[in-house]
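Thread amino acids onto this structure.
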């Protein structure tokens, strides 16, 4: 047999053997075998990263950044006092930031938001300078509110110099237990409502104490959040 004939026979035999192998091992079975090998020896690092990225659950975000969701018959809120006289307060209600420095609608003194206790709608909001402003404007804003109105208050700079006993008593009637102790440059946060039969559990107060102040002349920032019941 000539060398050329020998090569042709070898090539034909190779083709026949290849066809026999393919018929005995279809592509699907070969793919399964490859998958089994990967399971034995482990996926590549890139595949593992993709799998982790796909399977990682998305972080759940609750209204106003609360750690958990409020009951259906409650409103979510989160309020922060100002920092010294530099960074303003922030009032969030039902996942809507109503007052903040970014919105340019806050000011020194008492920052107050009034909420409809049935619908959760913001009725009105404003700030009242308690160092050089007029307390009469504050009284006009918070007196004679409709039953069920929710009141959120965040202090900034000085919340107390111009406060009168009459103004303090209005907050007492809204459920405050700390307003009578609030003094010059103290920090104070409060959430109450018209017609509460008990004192509000949503209130924080920190005194202006030069031995403990975080800022030069002002105490630390306060934060208060929770779930306030709808109109009772």
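Threaded sequence (232 positions):
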């Amino acid at each position: 047999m000539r060398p050329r004939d020998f090569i042709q026979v070898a090539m034909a035999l190779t083709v026949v053997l290849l066809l026999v192998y393919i018929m005995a091992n279809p592509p699907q079975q070969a793919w399964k075998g490859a998958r089994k090998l990967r399971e034995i020896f482990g996926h590549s690092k890139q595949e593992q990263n993709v799998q982790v990225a796909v399977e990682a659950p998305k972080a759940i975000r609750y209204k106003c950044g609360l750690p958990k969701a409020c009951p259906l018959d409650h409103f979510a809120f989160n309020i922060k006092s100002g920092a010294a006289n530099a960074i303003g307060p922030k009032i969030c209600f039902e996942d809507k930031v109503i007052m903040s420095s970014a919105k340019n609608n806050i000011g020194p003194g008492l920052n107050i938001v009034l909420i409809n206790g049935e619908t959760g709608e913001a009725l009105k909001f404003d700030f009242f300078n308690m160092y050089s402003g007029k307390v009469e404007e504050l009284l006009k804003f918070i007196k004679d509110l409709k039953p069920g109105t929710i009141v959120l208050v965040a202090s900034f700079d000085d919340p107390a110099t111009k406060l009168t006993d009459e103004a303090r008593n209005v907050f007492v009637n809204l459920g405050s237990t700390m307003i009578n102790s609030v003094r010059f440059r103290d920090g104070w946060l409060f959430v109450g409502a018209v017609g509460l039969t008990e004192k509000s559990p949503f209130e924080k107060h920190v005194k202006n104490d030069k031995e403990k102040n975080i800022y030069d002349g002002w105490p630390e920032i306060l934060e208060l959040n929770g779930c306030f019941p709808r109109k009772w």
